[in-house]
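Objective 1b. Sequence-to-structure analysis of Endonuclease/exonuclease/phosphatase family protein.
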Amino acid sequence: MNHLNPAPSRRRFLAAAAGLGAAAGTSGVAAAATGPRPLRVATFNIHHGASPADVLDLDRVARVIQAMRVDVVGLQEVDRFWKRSGFVDQPAWLGERLGMRHAFGANLDLDPEESGRPRRQYGTAVLSRWPIRSWTNTHLPLVPGHEQRGLLRATLDVRGVCADFAVTHLQHDDSQERERQSARIVELLGSSPERTVLVGDLNATAETPEIRTLTDVLGDAWPQAGTGDGFTYDSVNPHARIDFLLPSRDLRPLTAQVFTADPGASDHLPVVSELLPPVRHRR
């Protein structure tokens, strides 16, 4: 399924270079190399807008995203039209609140909880300051009786050049299912992806086979640019790094940070990273 978002009222386009947009060269036979500008990306499991104590406050989530000053963020545990979250279309609400485009991937699509309401959906979302040219949501391998998971993949227009931003949320209690899901993600993204970032709550730590399946073809921003343990879960007492930013090899992580400004906004802590695209020469 593909979807194009209308442009929001507020626009802020940060230049990215090289495969992600480059300024014109100086002049003459050979142009000078252009200097790439970092791309600021993040992942955040928002727990349907509820705190660890299950107090609903979606604006609190919006304030965290705003404070991270990101160009694009992948969200997990996002509601549309659920009673527990006030029947709000959360990706649309956050997009409007933050002046960002949005795409949503429904991994659950259920009957409404009240007559006359829209169908309730649950899944992942992308919020982007760049235009979203198209998006697809592909369901991942599923063990019967478990929650359906998916890969939401958005193609972004970064100064006229395409970049892929993908977000996922792997099964929480079955490592073999996660391995199959990771293998399917590699099939979808390709064995040598470029201009691609995969983010998400992967419900596993870096040494596990399911994560190694992904890091065999993608980088891992934290060991390359982070400091410390990088723990993201749970937000009140962080003890595990299960939320990941995995850029393709052509994107170099400059920074990686667990964002701890408001640990009570969700039961996960978000992770933010600046990624440097390669230098491209223009003639």
